[in-house]
Specification:
This protein is of the alpha/beta class. The chain has three domains: about 5-130 and about 250-430, P-loop containing nucleotide triphosphate hydrolases (Rossmann fold, 3-Layer(aba) Sandwich); about 130-250, Domain 2, N(10)-formyltetrahydrofolate synthetase (2-Layer Sandwich); about 445-525, Formyltetrahydrofolate synthetase, domain 3 (Roll), CATH 3.10.410.10. It is built from 19 helices and 24 strands. The strands form six sheets. Strands 1, 2, 3, 4, 5, 6, 13, 14, 15, 16, 17 and 18 form a twelve-stranded mixed β-sheet that branches. The protein starts with a helix and ends with a strand.
Length: about 550
């Protein structure tokens, strides 16, 4: 019986976080320690690095996810360890896990097997308190808005047109739509409200895109929280939000440093969802890592149609980043599901299904290439994979002019990615990268959405009702230069999660447009996607408990 992720993590031999930092030349007095194995870098030190040259930036992305699992975070960790094993000065940059998925369906998000970041329990739970700071800063603004309305302050807010919701870092469908301020005059003016999950909050997006504290405060002030009766925008700065919110976020903004199981440096900071937000770790952590390491491996959530597209079109565009290479993670199991095989039948060899499912991998390869970034494929090997199935995946990648490597980091750690790591170095050092976003800033918003649907998803276009068309026109006036952030199911190129493989000929219904003026993008909500998830019939929380020794069990 193989050991669980939490058992492996618990047996890890961690070194002091100061020793981890020393591998990147970070002085120990520039680390704000949270115990022996977690630390934040001082922002003064981060600022002092600005004039250093950047290392090479490598993105880890994946095929369209399935319940069979792909192991993107595990591959990011394993590749980082592999790069260090072959003598390179490398670091990884990951997002912080949300408590919602930890106690919902997904479980933890710190890697797996022998390719994990540790301390695993801390990272998956409260960590350094960043998410709590983001959630309370968001809800402080909510409280200021309702207090502003209650006292009748100027500028006057139309309580019917408050667009700012509240947040909680838990999957809780009962909070999607609520009515607040009930109970009489003393409690304010009743109005419809709702909750999003913290990782879908605009505060999270701002936190992850801000370049420093000053930029953070400026972005917070530009948040549009609603309208007055003339339908003119009301901003967070109008209710005096940015000052106190920035006080709550000041410490959180400093990047977190931890280690892999092989004691290599890992920055874990920020955590927006990729299906309803932009799905990347903080710009500050990525830029800091690039100043300290020669090679930086980061990930973007879910498949390349979501996370990678947003990494390229939002994060890289806004932060001026130029990725040097990309790794697409695939598994035989996931490709079988894209080839029409049920999860219960994945243990039986089926080369034809793998070949059919490779249509999904091929489209992702073509999409990433279209951004001018050289690509390789990492096949995250499972014990049930057969040689014939693995050969089929390699052959599909090679037909696209891309090398695919079998990686065994889950069982072997960095030793299982050495061949992949050498090829990634060759790609990153080749000078082949000629990064360009998918669309220019001055393309109309509606055309940006349609371009993503046609060029990345393989669809025919979008459909909108008259209200959404009107909203496109309204937003175009002042925010037409913003990129768009698609909120879409992660399980398909389309908005139908059951359409596997590489579907085409579909249209994408745009249900709603949301302005994120502080984050500087427009969210296009498609299909039935929810910004507040619900728990599944049997949530992971049912199996998480403290054993008799007081140790956590069931967190995976």
């Amino acid at each position: 019986m193989p050991k669980s992720d939490i058992e492996i993590a618990r047996e890890a031999t961690m070194i002091p976080v100061a020793d981890v930092g020393s591998k990147l030349g970070i002085p120990s007095n520039q680390l704000l320690q949270y115990g022996p194995h977690k630390a934040k870098l001082s922002m003064d030190y981060v600022k002092s690095l600005q004039d250093r040259p950047d290392g090479k930036l490598i993105l880890t992305t994946a095929v369209t996810p399935t319940p069979a699992g792909e192991g993107k975070t595990t591959t990011t960790v394993g590749l980082g360890d592999g790069l260090n094993r072959i003598g390179k000065k490398a670091a990884i940059c990951l997002r912080e896990p949300s408590l919602g998925p930890c106690f919902g369906m997904k479980g933890g998000a710190a890697g797996g097997g022998y390719a994990q970041v540790v301390p695993m329990e801390d990272i998956n739970l409260h960590f350094t308190g960043d998410f709590h700071a983001i959630g309370i800063a968001h809800n402080l603004l909510s409280a200021l808005i309702d207090n502003h309305i209650y006292w009748g302050h100027e500028p006057s807010i139309d309580s019917r047109r408050v667009s700012w919701k509240r947040v909680v870092d838990m999957n809780d469908r009962a909070l999607r739509q609520i009515t607040n301020s009930l109970g009489g005059v003393a409690n304010g003016f009743p109005r419809e409200d709702g909750f999003d999950i913290v990782v879908a909050s605009e505060i999270m997006a701002i936190f992850c895109l801000a370049t420093d504290l000053h930029d953070l405060v400026e972005r917070l002030g530009r948040i549009v929280i609603g309208q007055n009766r003339k339908r003119e925008p009301i901003y967070a700065k109008d209710v005096k939000g940015p000052g106190p919110m920035s006080v709550l976020l000041k410490e959180a903004l400093a990047p977190n440093l931890v280690q892999t199981l092989e004691n290599n440096p890992a920055f874990v900071h920020g955590g927006p969802f990729a299906n309803i937000a932009h799905g990347c770790n903080t710009v500050i952590a990525t830029q800091t890592a690039l100043k300290l390491a020669d090679y930086v491996v980061t990930e973007a959530g879910f498949g390349a149609d979501l996370g990678a597209e947003k990494f390229f079109d939002i994060k890289c565009r806004k932060a001026g980043l130029k990725p040097d290479a990309a790794v697409i993670v695939a598994t035989v199991r996931a490709l079988k599901m894209h080839g029409g095989i049920a999860k219960d039948d994945l243990g039986t060899e089926n080369v034809a299904a793998v070949q059919e499912g490779c249509s999904n991998l091929i489209r992702h390869i073509q999409n990433v290439k279209s951004f001018g970034v050289p690509v390789t494929v990492s096949i995250n090997r499972f014990i049930t994979d057969t040689d014939a199935e693995l050969i089929a995946v390699k052959a599909a990648a090679e037909r696209e002019g891309v090398k695919a490597f079998i990686a065994t980091h889950w069982s072997d750690g960095g030793a299982g990615t050495e061949e992949l790591a050498r090829h990634v170095v060759a790609l990153a050092d080749s000078g082949e990268a000629d990064f360009k976003p998918l669309y220019p800033d001055d393309m109309p918003l509606r055309d940006k959405v349609e371009t993503i649907v046609k060029a990345i998803y393989g669809g025919n276009g979008i459909t909108c009702d008259s209200a959404v068309e009107k909203r496109f026109a309204e937003l175009q006036k002042d925010y037409g230069h913003f990129p768009v952030c698609m909120a879409k199911t992660q399980y398909s190129f389309s908005t139908d999660p059951d359409m596997k493989g590489a579907p085409s000929g579909f249209t994408v219904p745009i249900r709603e447009l949301r302005l994120s003026a502080g984050a500087e993008f427009i969210v296009a909500v498609t299909g039935a996607i929810m910004t507040m998830p619900g728990l599944p019939r049997t949530p992971s929380a049912n199996s998480i408990f403290l054993n008799e020794e007081g140790q956590i069990e069931g967190l995976f």
